[in-house]
Amino acid sequence: MSAVNDMIRVPALRTTDPAVFGRVAVLLGGTSAEREVSLNSGANVLAALRARGVDAHAIDGIPALVEQLAAKRFDRVFNILHGGDGENGVLQGLLQAFAIPYTGPDVLGSALTMDKVRTKQVWLAEGLPTARFVRLPHGADVATAVRELGFPVFIKPSAEGSSVGVFRVMGESDLAPAVEFAKTYDGELLAEQLVAGGEYTVGILGDIALPSVKIVPPGEWYDYHAKYISDDTQYICPGLSGDDEAEIRRLAMAGFRSAGCSGWGRVDVMRHADGRFALMEVNTAPGMTSHSLVPKAAGQVGIDFAELCWRILEKTLGGAA
């Protein structure tokens, strides 16, 4: 391992007995735009937990889960429901009402970070760096807002993930598709400064900021295809070294905690050409597919996929850090 990884102290497991978790629901699928990715992630998590002896079962979507919880068939939930009600606080509030422990941040952290605009507003209030942006409520004049912000920009939904509905607008000739999308999209959008430096992500596991991952897509940017389909995307971990690596991990943890998050997640960070970092967004139920980044980073500090799933589930035990 590198010197960077040597600085990360991984605590001992809290338990090695799968029976302490009871019956575990692995919540996956659902109805959001990220359903297929969630099914993939969930299948991987389910297999990993079962391989370590956990009594885990797949549940597709929140309505099916409610039925099972009402019948008191589960003791805790491993949430791998990407997007929508799985990450916006709705599920978290439901589970708290049922007094069922669950993975990932609570209602506040989930609801806040699902909204990119409000997350950025909190970061700015906390003095944390983020890319310049303009909030675009439904019906806003997208073209005018983009021109005021200045090209190049990304236009994206404030409350979607997995690069769904994202437009890369380099100049006037790229505006039309984004403007047309805005007319049909009911939610809020944001126009965000395109940071032309390196793209990084930092996985969070309890009190540990895992080694950064530098993302080098085969095309011009890290779109849905580069994330989930292409085998040509390069992932460099650790993405940085020395003081730069320490700083990006510190900043990611500060961004995670200031947004009310705990448990586990992932913080995406861009780096300007002059070396400054910019927090971009927080993912409270990160992907767990073969292309996903938290497992890659965990592997760098000796945590394999099955152990990662176990450690995430451990955070649902009383008093887990």
UniProtKB/TrEMBL annotation:
Cofactor binding summary note: Binds 2 magnesium or manganese ions per subunit.
Name the needed cofactors.
Mn(2+); Mg(2+)
Biological processes, Gene Ontology terms: cell wall organization; peptidoglycan biosynthetic process; regulation of cell shape
Q: Where in the cell is it found?
A: Cytoplasm
Q: Which residues bind Mg(2+) 2?
A: E281, N283
Q: Which domain of life is it from?
A: Bacteria
Annotated active site: E34, S162, S292
Q: What is this protein called?
A: D-alanine--D-alanine ligase
Annotated keywords: ATP-binding, Cell shape, Cell wall biogenesis/degradation, Cytoplasm, Ligase, Magnesium, Manganese, Metal-binding, Nucleotide-binding, Peptidoglycan synthesis
Catalytic reactions on record: 2 D-alanine + ATP = D-alanyl-D-alanine + ADP + phosphate + H(+)
- Cellular component terms, GO, for this chain's entry? cytosol
A Pfam family this protein belongs to? Answer: Dala_Dala_lig_C
Q: What is its EC number?
A: 6.3.2.4
**Molecular functions (GO terms):** ATP binding; D-alanine-D-alanine ligase activity; metal ion binding
Which PANTHER family has this protein been placed in? D-ALANINE--D-ALANINE LIGASE, D-ALANINE--D-ALANINE LIGASE B
Q: Which residues form a coiled coil?
A: none
- Predominant cellular place of this UniProt entry's protein: cytoplasm
Sum up the protein's function in the record's words. Cell wall formation.
Q: Which PROSITE patterns match?
A: ATP_GRASP (PS50975), DALA_DALA_LIGASE_1 (PS00843), DALA_DALA_LIGASE_2 (PS00844)
* Residues that coordinate or bind Mg(2+) 1: D268, E281
